[in-house]
User: Fold these one by one.
Assistant:
Number 1:
Amino acid sequence: MPIKISNIFIVLLLTALLQPCVYAKAKTDKVHIKSDRVEMNYKTGVTRYIGHVVVTSSETIATGSKMLTEQNDNNKLSQATIFGNEAHLTIKDKKDPLYAKAKIIKLFPQSHMIELIEHARATQHGNSISAPRMTYNTKTKVLQSESTKKSQAHIELLNHPSA
């Protein structure tokens, strides 16, 4: 049976729940999660954050209406899934900041992968790409799109004039 916890206890649980996480670049970087409600199931390793979810760290901001996190047998985060009409993800890299949105955003910290699912859109350096589904490798910084029979990827490139 899930345990209901108020926001006061969320900060105390962050270190155990989300370390190491794709949101946090350094091991000492703290991850903060705010939501209207939290349900933790210690037996399954699944935690549900419900209502106005905001995840912040020094490197990342993610928002959505709901988030599920899953821990593996070693008590490490294996997957975080953010849901919303438009779930948002910002990776604050000084050289290559990435702004992304989709209905579903899946984060896989162990493999450095992010999946953007349904109405996915990502913007980097003023260039944007829209597709039904995309993947982004946070280590190699490679963004790949996938199309379907009904919809193709669409790219908008910013024209940089020569100096």
Number 2:
Amino acid sequence: MADLVTDSVNDLIAKIEQVAAVRARVVYMYEENDIYDAKKKLNYPCLGVIYAGLTLNEAGTRRERSHNLLCTILLLGADLCVHDASTKMPDATALLDDIRTAVRTTTGVDEMKWRFESETPIDLSTDDNPAQLGYVQRWSRNVILT
């Protein structure tokens, strides 16, 4: 494993890309606003994965404390609950469920399982797109820093 963070984010992206509706539409981002640059290059729906840091997990021995590696998935370009064929946008709740299914039953690069933390809508409105709604999923998994 060359870099725990990069390997973990790439592992998460590979799992998300198993969902046909977003295959080849997932990018590694450094902040939420990067999704706007991504949407210029990708068709809807598009997703960004953000490394959100490490936090100490108090369980474990003093020599080998585990940490929670946190990642955020940002979805842009899906309708909330109803598939509307005229907009060609997928049903966001179904798509988010497909992503949960693709990730939650799998392990990361070091055999530690990904844990679903939360999911929520987020306002991504800008001056160019005044009514832009997105969705955030947060995932974590244990990692051992040596």
Number 3:
Amino acid sequence: MSKHSPKSMKRYINANINPKIIIYIMVTITPICMMAAYYWARAEGHLIRPFTNGRISCSPEEIALYSYIYSAFIGGCASVSATMRYLPESFILHAMFSLDAVLIAITFFFFKPWLLELNKYSDNPFKKINLHASIIMWAGILGGLFFLISTSMWNGRHVYDIYLGPVNVGDWHAILAYTFCSLILLSSLYFTIVEYKLRKSTLFSKGYKICFSIRILSFVTFIAIFSVVIGTLIINKKLKILNAGLEYWMIHIFILWYISFIFDKKFFNKFNN
């Protein structure tokens, strides 16, 4: 194991902004805001079908009035995007997703110095760690930017009637949203692989084992659901009503990936603790 002094870590590890605090904020407020917006939309009669203009509301059977979990995740008529079409509940999701986009970009910015420091202490360092870490960082930052733009473009009942060039605003929102999902999936998977290779021999603590297992579970589930969503879009040209809840699954699985950092006590901390 390398004998580098932990002093070189102080610039980032003891920084005023601790990425773990950012992660705590994201994994706490995001599910709460999504539930609040869904129930508010249901109370206002604003749960509408995806890919529709105007107020084409879900029927009582489609809404499935039993609970948020059943409605959103299993048989829900409205997707996350469809829940963002009307005020006042759309304000909650717009504010939350805009904040999430910024926080995602910030966390991936901090992933680079974390990997650089890990590389110094690893028994199996990467020769081009700066390149790997930079790709991860910029893919995450770009993903956050696409998420922010996608969120800002999505508002109102007639998003499919307003065109920017040959594509309407609703379709631009979908293109940017799926670009965000792809970039974040690739960058988070890339980060997980690089970190695992750096830590598997010397820094593989019990907490990191739990952390790594949660990430693998989230990747497998996310890829499966994302494949279903993309396949449905390609085959049917639009998202089926019964698959609307898949958007909720994708977001909560991404939250699960971030939750994994909570179990890793060494993350962004001194290695000699």
